[in-house]
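*** Query protein ***
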Amino acid sequence: VMIELLHLVLHRWPQAVVQLFGAPNQRAVADAIMAALPDASGRLQDHVGNALPEMLAMFHSLSALLVGNTGPSHLAAAMGLPQVSLAISQSLSLTRWAPWTTQAQVLRRAPGCEIICRPPVCADAPQRCQVELAPERVLSALEAVLAQPQRFEDVGHYLVSLLKQNFVVASPHADVIQQLGSWGWQAVLAETKTPS
């Protein structure tokens, strides 16, 4: 499925350079992709196994990212990088785990499979569900995110919004609580304990 999709991407955007990212344990997959697309030499670059900081630095040169619903998806969202995120598991809550950005299309296969997508119940779920995401559908989603105006957002702004939604700040100072509340933080007055 991935090789067919890469054929479509390289044909649709003749000037595009596709960069492969992944963890070191995905080396065999990257080698298979590179071997299956020998005519794409120079337009297909292998960065699988690079460290996370190197990958993030390369994100700034990308026009869009095709990614599984994993950590790099959320980091790309923090940077404002348009993306197509593949939510393979039907049991995944998109409300909770989809990337927090307006510049993403999250694709999931059509509903209807009655198997819970978690090993050991469905050990072949990722492969089966990926096959059901047609390359043409993924290509259409890529076209849609590329048509949006691109912007790189401040990572700090994204992280602060995550913190505001998920944490409560405690302070013994009422004026601090009031100020944090005016900025949208959840804040509570904490008791001060004097040392004995």
Q: What stands out?
A: The CA atoms of residues 19 and 188 lie 46 Å apart. The first helix runs from residue 2 to 12. The two ends are 67 Å apart (CA to CA). The mean pLDDT is 78.
